[in-house]
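JOB MANIFEST
job_type = single_chain_structure
chain_count = 1
residues = 279
[input]
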Amino acid sequence: MTTKIAEWIAVDWGTSNFRAWVFDADGGLIDLVTSDRGMGSLAPEEFEPALIEAIGHFLGKEKTPVICCGMVGAKQGWQEAPYASVPCEPAQSDTALRVTPKDARLLPYILPGLKQDSPADVMRGEETQTAGVIHENPQFDGILCLPGTHTKWIHISAEEIVVVRPDPFFQDFFGRFVQPRRREYTRTSLGSGVIVRPDGFVVTNAHVVARGDRITVTLADEREFEATLVGTDEHADLAVLQIDGKDLPHAEFGPSHDLMIGESVIAIGNPFGFSHTVT
């Protein structure tokens, strides 16, 4: 039996497992090679021998590109590939780290992971999976869930990763079962909102109304209304209120797909009680 020679090889090298997709010149999949020789079981000098052991029989005499993602690019991996910062396009080939191998048949590259400063988060490997989703669905604008040991919730817009959200399970777990000691106190919270329907529906921030016993909405003409909390989304920090009004001035929602990253934004709010401020 003759083994076909690879045109190029894609590798997802995680902490616990190794997976390699071997492609021919027509883009067809020759084989999927898997093993349990993940980053966690290898020293830096052992990565190349482990790679040769897994895919060496698919290599020809010419250099074969091997595109790697995942923990292979971590500090304790084969060679560290620095993180790129979001928002950015995922898995950019022009930022891939070129590795100099001992085996002349290899032409290995390591794609950089992505990092986010606030809230702090990193990913290695998931950004390449996200690049595949964007390639197949270039108009996608929304949240992508990538389940795993460390599940990632990724906001995609305009073919870029905009933000990485924390895992809702762990937020819910610690919120429900790891509670600090409670103290009795009274708190007044101020914030701003927007009337989005003439019959009194108001959109505001979830943190503004969180744990509130009484919610009062004051309009620009100083009319006050008692508000009812309709619902909240703590992960998006959004809340919907309803006040008893008719034919109220309101703002209509526009299409998000018309927005572009980098456009100017004006925020009108009520920080610390200073109403009608503009940022």
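[summary]
Helices lie at 47-55, 126-136, 168-177, 206-209.
Residues 126-136 form the longest helix (11 residues).
exit_status = 0
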